[in-house]
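Annex B.
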Amino acid sequence: MERKRNYIILLPIGAIGLFAVIQWNTQKKIKNDIAPVDNVGRNCIPVHSSLTQTCEPRRKLGFLKMHRCAGTTLQNIFLRYALTSNLNLVLPSEKRKYVGSPELFSQELVDNTPWHHLGYDMMAIHTRWDHKAIKEALGGDPAFVTIVRDPIEQFKSIYGYYNFFKFLGNLSFSQFLDNLKDFGLVRIKNVIGRNQMLFDLGFPVSDFDNEDKVKRFVEKARKIFDLVMVMEKFEESIVLLKHLLCWDYEDFVFLKLNSMKEGTKLKLSADQEDKLSLWLKADKFLYARLKEVFEKKIEEFGHKRMEEEKLKLSSIRNQVMERCLSGKQNITEDALIKEMRKHAGCRLYALGEYQFLDVVKSAQSKRADIAALKLLGLAD
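Galactosylceramide sulfotransferase-like: predicted structure tokens.
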């Protein structure tokens, strides 16, 4: 009887202690330049659209964020939707924008986060793809999407963005091309290197030169993704994505985030491109095959219809830009992003990846805290 009485006394004390910890956690401040999460509506800024939905919006999404393939721009679209729809993202608890990589994704990587018991709706950060594990983590019937890019252009972007020249030590780029065989298995931080798209998809580095295995893997990738977008056809990709996910066009307003300036991109001679093409042969095959599938989707969608849809997307984007920029004209992309961050209703469109992930983590932590309080009977 005495033990039972002690238990009754200690239970509310423990609950109060837990409540205090939870309250402290939810009161952590987000940086001043980020719009408050509680005040974010379904759309970051209202626009006028007569478009009607005839399908059910997809709320489960697995997005493979390829390196240097406009992934941050797409990620911003997905994070905005997740945030304003109270969806839970697969995220590590620590301040990282990766989950896994170089190891393949596994559920264990996110099992100890404060929000893991809520379940997951969306994967939208860098990982090394394991389709079965990601599908199990998301549950339900997710849409699976990714994006590819011409491998030569992707590597040029990788070379500049990740300061590849520092990794090469004293070698010039020409010397690097003359010694490509020495760099086939080497990767910056064990992640960045040859055939980056196949690597991100989870293909073994040791099999890059095995044509049969590459072909079988590419066919498998073709089947598991509902849509593989093409960076060189970005607007067309957005239109197809919109129709796959059945979200509003307002959800697909985008800025070019994390892109490199033209003057900083590596310039190659025809001979250098040929050498690099041979080295990236596996990714070249992947790109060609998946682009072929993409072009067929456009044919099925209809070219006239595609142009009409692109005009709708452009019109809504222009409405948002007009509201956010207060009539400013002929503005550069960098200045555009800075201006968007000044406008309370526009910040999410231009928010940097780390900042946005902090916002999402804060929202998910808050939902996890509320769920814990409900479990204790301390919240409705």
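Residues 56-313 form a domain with the Rossmann fold fold (CATH 3.40.50.300). The two ends are 32 Å apart (CA to CA). Further annotation is deferred to the next reporting cycle.
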